[in-house]
Amino acid sequence: MHLGEDLITLGLLFVAAYGLGRLAKLIGLPSIPVYMIVGLLASPNTTWIPINFESHYLELIAVFGLILLLFNLGLEFDQDEFFANAGKLLVSGGSYVVINMGVGLIFGFMVGWGTREALIIAGMTATSSSAIVTKLLIELGRLPNRETPMILGVTVIEDMFIAIYLAIVSVVLSGETELWPMIGKLAIAFTFLVVMFTVARWGGRWVSTLFKTKDDELFTILFFGLAMMFGGLGEVLGVTDAIGAFLIGLVLGATRYHAKIEQIAVPLRDVFAAFFFVNFGLSMDIGAFPDVVLPVAIAVVMTVVLNILAGQFVAWLNGMGPQQGINTTVILQNRGEFALILATLSLSAGLDPRIQPFAGLYVLVMSIMGPILAANSEKIGAVILRSSRRRPPPRPRERSSEAIALVEAATRGDVAPQDGPSVKDSAPARDNRESAAANGVVDPRSEEPSVEVVRTAPVDVIDDFDAGDGTVVGGRASELERLARQAMAQSDHEPTTDRETDS
After folding, report:
1. Beta bridge partners of 455
2. What would the 3-class secondary structure string for 252-282 be?
3. Cβ atoms within 10 Å of 272's Cβ, excluding its own
4. 271-303, pLDDT tens digit by residue?
5. pTM
6. Cα–chain-centroid distance for residue 109?
7. What is the mean pLDDT of the chain?
8. Residue 291 to residue 357: CA distance in whole angstroms
């Protein structure tokens, strides 16, 4: 077997993916669309570049990528977080999934490609890409944000939904039409789910004994072998290799070796997932895109609108504001690996061939648009929320001479008592007191205790005397502010501030 030319071609593809990936990182794009574009450029269905590479060479390696994607998804599933906040997570994440899945299913039927195709389309449009979501939260520095635990909670529920959804889809894709055989397959699928979830919840200590080795090579071989074995077991049981890999990842994520497995598995996932995405691009036919442009455009608009509604609703449920809702929307609207996995499963099941170009173009658009919007969500929120709260500008008003004099005095930092109101000691007042004292008349004010006089630091001039503006210096600035408010209220009965407050 002579594979030299094919290996050179494959190496060139991945070097090209590296170069395009570096460029994509400059504008904040993830690697998924880059790998797909590289595969599309080298596809035998296109003639853009002379490289021609058959996708069947990569099929087995691409299956490894699919299995490791789902394996890592199960590995990262936080059981403690789920069971500790099950009620809140089910309400928040469940409402998000129900909104997107329900409307997505209606859209799938409206496309008119078939019932099974409608179920697949609904799954594609209903679930976020956990890989893109996680990377965006890290790269954009959003981990400390208030909405981040809520976003991660939604992804946890989505992972649960994926497990149940795949169990149902596996039976639907099998082509079984008889009632009792369908019920039997569903029973097998859900029994597999229940058993694996039970082992993950209560059998972590027992499973951990399998990994008692200090040899990293043997350690890696063991969990990789388990991922492949349970992927195959899922296929044999009729629940797909994806769900088998997800469930064994869930079990190994409950062991005390979770961190070590993840440390080794993530680089493996990234390498094999690159093969999966490149292979998907190789299998796409750009000539089929015109047939799905309209459904994809509708799906993109639908996804954005639904995520705006769902994001704001979930933020409201968790007691957060509109900006947190916007941040949630732009992060969770990203679609990626799961849509492509569903397309791959549907292709092997003989569904409508338009599913594949639909999924490819839909993921390309969403995985490019999503990160760009996510990177600018704060700016988008500032524009939207400012315009929605903007008040009409106040009419010009004249300030009294007293208010102006008080502001100028505060700015100059004139003498003032450290405690109590300011005392304006004019020359005529001093002359009157000295004359009264010479004639034996006691001024009652002279009996008041002496007040230490200090020079305060100048206070910045402010247009509106609001309690939130500037720093109050001693007692004088506070009194000046009070007097200025009174003077301005007398000259103009309008509110003293037109500054917007951020809810």
Report:
1. 415
2. HHCCCCHHHHHHHHHHHHHHHHHHHHHHHHH
3. 18
4. 999 999 988 888 888 888 999 999 999 999 999
5. 0.69
6. 29
7. 78
8. 9
